[in-house]
Amino acid sequence: GLLQMQLILHYDETYREVKYSNIQLEDIDHKVLMGINITPVAALLYTPILIRFFGTKWAMFLAVGIYALFVSSNYWERYYTLVPSAVAIGVVIVPLWASMGNYITRMAQKYYEYINYKEEQEKDKKKQQTSQDACNTYIIIFQTVFYSCFHLSFVCAQMPMVFFLNNYLYQHNHTLFAVKHCGEGTGWCASPMAVPQVLVLCGAAYEPMEEIDMRSIGWGNIFQLPFKHMRDYRLRHLFPLFIYSGFEVLFVCTGFSLNYGVCALGLEKLAYLLMAYGFSCSSVALSTRRLRRHIPLLAGAFIHAGLLVTLFCWAPQPRHLAQAPLLYIIAVLWGMGSALNKTGISS
After folding, report:
1. Model confidence at 208: pLDDT above 70
2. DSSP, residue by residue, 102-126
3. What is the pLDDT of residues 209-259, one digit of tens each?
4. Where are the transmembrane segments (predicted)?
5. d(CA 78, CA 13)
6. pLDDT tens digits, one per residue of 85-110
7. CA separation (Å) from 249 to 21, 23, 170?
8. Mean pLDDT of the chain
9. For residue 319, what are the domain limits?
């Protein structure tokens, strides 16, 4: 969202080059993306230790605070503010998602225990097995509800452009007057508010005695946990999907939105394309909760594969607004694939 704002505010390439060359950031987008995407490679080594030391809730609080710091650094655009804050985000991305996944799973378990307290007291083995399966169902429901809310952030992030910036943009006939080929040929103040929300709305994930039991695990064992988990062949098979799930969102927000959507329809339609993607993600995520866990993964893969073949074979014409319905359909279908992909991986 922030990179999109940078693009919109400085879409005049001449002004952009002059401004960022003065602060030694001639290629700001790539340097910030490198900081955000390369740093998490080392996170496997320190994430368990960080969550063990701070706890699940406070690890989330720290990570959201660093996200707010990155947003704030865009008010004072300097090399020593943008690049270090982008690297800091890369450092906390993995701890944020690890603690978030742990927190959602734990809340689902506690909710199940709350509504089935009497059933948990029975010792019958068959009923214990049934209760375990029921708990897994609640975990899937909690994950899909979370992703439904999370994907609405793509919609909310477009509000400044829809209600404010679009009024100051030139129309597509002006901004795309020299464009010949497309496709293969080619919220600022809200973030700090999220920090206190974590403290106020999120209770402790574990009881005090449970935290003590967790801290009794030796540092060496905590350090080895990620590698021990990888002994499970199912996780090894999912590993390429973990990587793909990050790149496919980056592609739809940059490659598809710019090289196809903006190139064909103009910059003023960028927000609406991403909103269609966000609404599609949010609505599909909830509908997958009754499916078997492997079905969303396979369905998302087939949808994205078909769309990638389509995008390789078809390139839109610049300034041709009749193509808009097809581009919106592709954005919606890609959102469906993203929702299936992410909820399937989480489940």
Report:
1. no
2. HHHHHHHHHHHHHHTHHHHT---HH
3. 565 455 566 666 666 776 777 788 878 888 788 878 878 887 888 788 878
4. 32-51, 58-76, 82-104, 238-258, 270-288, 295-315, 321-340
5. 18
6. 878 888 888 888 888 888 888 888 88
7. 29, 29, 27
8. 76
9. 169-176+218-346
What tokens were used for 346? 């989480």
Q: Specify if 127 maps to a domain.
A: no
Asked if 134 and 87 touch (Cβ cutoff 8 Å), the reply is no
Report how far residue 34's alpha carbon sits from residue 30's, in angstroms, rounded to the nearest whole number. 6
The stretches of the chain forming alpha helices (DSSP H) are: 2-9, 13-22, 28-38, 43-54, 56-73, 79-115, 117-120, 125-156, 159-163, 172-175, 191-201, 208-215, 219-229, 233-250, 263-265, 270-287, 294-313, 324-346
Check: CB of residue 68 under 8 Å from CB of residue 191.
yes
Q: Distance between CA 249 and CA 37 in Å, rounded?
A: 13
Structure tokens at 189: 């103040």
Residue 16 has pLDDT above 60, yes or no: no
> Which of 175, 234, 188 lies closest to 71 in space, CA to CA?
188
Residue 236 lies in a domain: yes
Q: Is residue 107 within 8 Å of residue 57, measured between CB atoms? A: no
Identity of the amino acid at 26: E
Distances from the Cα of 278 to the Cαs of 137, 253, 283, 284, 290, in angstroms?
A: 25, 11, 9, 10, 21
Q: Is residue 154 part of a domain?
A: no
The pLDDT tens digits for 119-146 are: 555 555 455 554 556 677 788 888 888 8
Task: Spell 156-177 as b/e; 16+ CB within 10 A means b.
Answer: ebbebbeeebbeebeebeebbe
Across 42-46, 204-208, 267-271, least confident range = 204-208
For residue 125, being part of any structural domain is answered with no
Q: Give CA–CA dist 337/344, Å, rounded.
A: 10
DSSP 277-303: HHHHHHHHHHHTTTS-THHHHHHHHHH
